[in-house]
Write a structure and sequence with these properties.
- The chain has three domains: about 5-50, no CATH class; about 50-125, no CATH class; about 130-265, Substrate Binding Domain Of DNAk, Chain A, domain 1 (Sandwich), CATH 2.60.34.
- Helix content is about 20%, strand content about 35%.
- It has helices at about 5-15, 20-25, 45-50, 50-65, 85-95, 110-120, and strands at about 30-35, 40, 75-80, 100-105, 125-130, 130-140, 150-155, 160-170, 175, 180, 185, 195-205, 215-225, 240-245, 250-255, 260-265.
- It has a five-stranded antiparallel β-sheet with strand order 7-8-6-12-13, with no helix packed on it. Strands 10, 11, 14, 15 and 16 form a five-stranded antiparallel β-sheet that branches.
């Protein structure tokens, strides 16, 4: 392994020793040789240890995923991506899942799959959601609220309201079909004179998020829906549903009074 001058200089600036000097002072000095002044020869055993924590986490995660009902009956593991070409990872996967076929394609499978999808989108009919998707919401505060206590403030009507609530439309790990519309959720204005409602779309790494302020929750899109007729006040109903297809989510908002439909595309890959 060649040690680039900038790395050696960085070590010297921070510790007073250059990179090779630090190595020679470490517990690995008997297994490392300096070659030509700017190169290190490292025993294979030491180098392999660098990868053990990552490989172990991948194996643990695979074992966990294979317990999920959605993958019951799975008979093969397809390894794609740059790190999947590591012989250490490949051999560990094969030895850990002996009852499954492990496939390592010779070509860039992810890139090829993206090209195929671009030319023929119907080749993918179903996908597993990586994240939980939903919308931010609010409701009147009650001592019987069954969600974690978050932001509670007085609204324009003088009522206490709970804000930043996460309303789930589809959960992480859930299978969704191409262009399949998910169950509709009903939303209403907060005040009688409200002239628009906002729909904030969130993605969360949690399976059952309760608040949009939780760690792992990110705003991925915003939609503003005008209310042309305010005569129904806060009883004006809007149906909100998510449609999954391709590389994006489509948020569909239906005005239950006028029948008007608004669609908004949100990046699915974020």
């Amino acid at each position: 392994m060649r040690v680039i001058p900038s790395l050696s200089q960085l070590c010297k600036d921070m510790t007073g020793y250059d990179f090779i000097e630090l190595f020679l002072q470490s517990k690995f000095r008997s297994k490392i040789k300096v070659m030509g002044g700017d190169k290190l020869r490292i025993d294979a055993e030491v180098f392999a240890d660098f990868f053990k924590p990552t490989v172990s986490r991948i194996i643990s995660h695979l074992a966990y995923m294979l317990t999920k009902p959605v993958v019951q009956g799975c008979a093969a593991i397809l390894m794609v991506g740059g790190f999947s070409e590591s012989p250490m990872l490949h051999e560990k996967v094969k030895s850990s899942f002996r009852n499954m076929k492990v496939i390592l394609p010779d070509e860039a499978a992810v890139l090829k799959g993206a090209v195929i999808f671009g030319h023929e989108p119907t080749t993918i009919t179903e996908r597993i959601c990586k994240y939980t998707y939903g919308e931010g919401s609010t409701h009147r505060y009650s001592k019987r609220c069954n969600h974690p206590i978050g932001r509670v403030q007085m609204d324009e009507n003088g009522d206490l309201r709970c804000y930043d609530l996460f309303i789930t439309h589809v959960k992480a790990g859930q299978s969704v079909k191409m262009d399949e519309e998910q169950p509709e959720m009903i939303s209403t204005p907060i005040t009688d004179d409200q002239t628009a409602i906002g729909v904030d779309v969130y993605a969360s790494s949690l399976t059952n998020p309760q608040l949009t302020t939780e760690d792992g929750c990110n705003l991925i899109g915003k939609l503003r829906v005008p209310i042309s007729d305010t005569s129904s006040g806060s009883n004006h109903k809007f149906g909100i549903s998510f449609i999954f297809g391709g590389t994006e989510i489509v948020v569909k908002v239906v005005d239950k009074e006028s029948g008007e439909i608004m669609l908004k595309s949100v990046d699915f890959l974020g």
